[in-house]
Structures are given as C-alpha cells and as structure tokens.
Design goal:
Layout: H1 2-50, H2 62-65, H3 68-93, H4 99-113, H5 116-128, H6 134-141, H7 151-185, H8 188-191
Helix pairs in contact: 1-3, 3-5, 3-6, 6-7
Length: 197
C-alpha cells in the first residue's frame, strides 16, 4: 500500500514537472517568435534607412545638406519612415514589442526626430498628412517619456485619435462647403440647375 501511494505521489510530481516544462517551452517559443518579429521590424528599418541620402543623418540644416533632387527622393523615404515608426509605436501599444526592444527603438526614434532633416520633413509631411500618424504625434507630444503599453498612454491615444477624427470631419466639411460654394457660382449650363433670378 505504501509503495502504491509512493508511485501515485511520484506520478503527480512527474505531471507537475511535465506541465512546468511544457509551460516553459511555450514561453520560450513565444519569446523566440517575438524576437524574430522584432528582428524583422529592425531589418525593415535598416533597409529603409539605407535608401536615405547619408546626409540626412548629419546634424546640419536640411536646406543646406540636400540638393533639390535628393530632397524630392528623400521625401518619399521620410513618409515611409514616419509610417514605419508609427507602426512600431502601435505594435508596442499592442504588447508585441518587448521592454528592452522598445527602449532601444524609442531612443532611436527620438534621436532621428531631433535631426535637422527629420524635423524639416516631419514639419512638412506631418502638416500635410494631418489625419495620419496619431501614435507618432503623441510620442512626440509626451517627449518620448510615456510608454505606449501604459494605461495612461491608452487614455491619451484614444483622445488623440478622437482629435484626429474630428480634424478629418472638419476638413471634409470644409471641402464640401468649398465645393458647394464653387458650384453655386457656376452658370446653370455647368451645374445642370436652372437659374432663378
């Protein structure tokens, strides 16, 4: 009887150890998948950065460092950089990026956004694409100090998205008002509406 209880206890212990090993393996697999994913994002950044003229990484005024042709080519790359950065912030917000990787990325984002060429491009692109890059706008607004995975970030990003949506509605209304104003000044033959005097 004692031997039977001994083997029963041993079987329970083996099951517990097996569950522990299984859980550890799942954790390791998830961690490896996250690392692989983060590496792919880092590779995407390196490929994008390699398409910029090297001069954009210097700390001299943007207007002095690039020719008009280089500026035009770099403008597309800057847009892609801001889009990739916004995506990285969103992935951190969703819990897909580790603490260590986020700290490294956030430092890199801050460093790049403080460079003269990036500042100038952000002022231009960010001004034209007012409905895009909510996450990047908020990260800049909080001076890179608020972690996108924090509850405070979640509250603020909701407010930022509402602000961006309101801007979008306002721009759409202004565009509609402008079209109506232009249409009201056109002759009846153009608008198809009868003219009533």
């Amino acid at each position: 009887m004692i031997i039977f209880h001994f083997f029963e206890i041993l079987a329970h212990c083996a099951a517990i150890v097996g569950i522990g090993i299984g859980a550890y393996q799942l954790w390791q697999t998830r961690k490896q998948a996250q690392t692989t994913f983060e590496d792919s994002m880092a590779k995407e950044y390196r490929e994008l950065a390699s398409r910029f003229p090297t001069k954009v990484f210097y700390d001299i005024p943007f207007s002095e460092e690039l020719t008009p042709r280089e500026k035009a080519r770099a403008q597309d790359e800057f847009y892609r950089y801001f889009d990739l950065t916004n995506g990285q912030i969103f992935l951190r917000e969703a819990g897909r990026i580790s603490d260590q990787t986020w700290a490294f990325w956030c430092d890199g984002i801050k460093t790049n956004m403080q460079r003269a060429a990036f500042k100038a491009a952000w002022n231009d692109i960010g001004g034209k694409a007012q409905l895009d890059f909510a996450e990047l706008r908020l990260l800049i607004e909080v001076d890179y100090e608020l972690d996108p995975i924090s509850p405070n970030w979640m509250h603020r990003i909701c407010l930022k998205r509402q602000e961006v949506a309101a801007k979008g509605r306002k721009l759409k209304a202004e565009e509609s008002d402008t079209k109506e104003a232009v249409a009201s000044k056109l002759p009846a033959t153009v608008t198809g509406k009868p003219v009533i005097d």
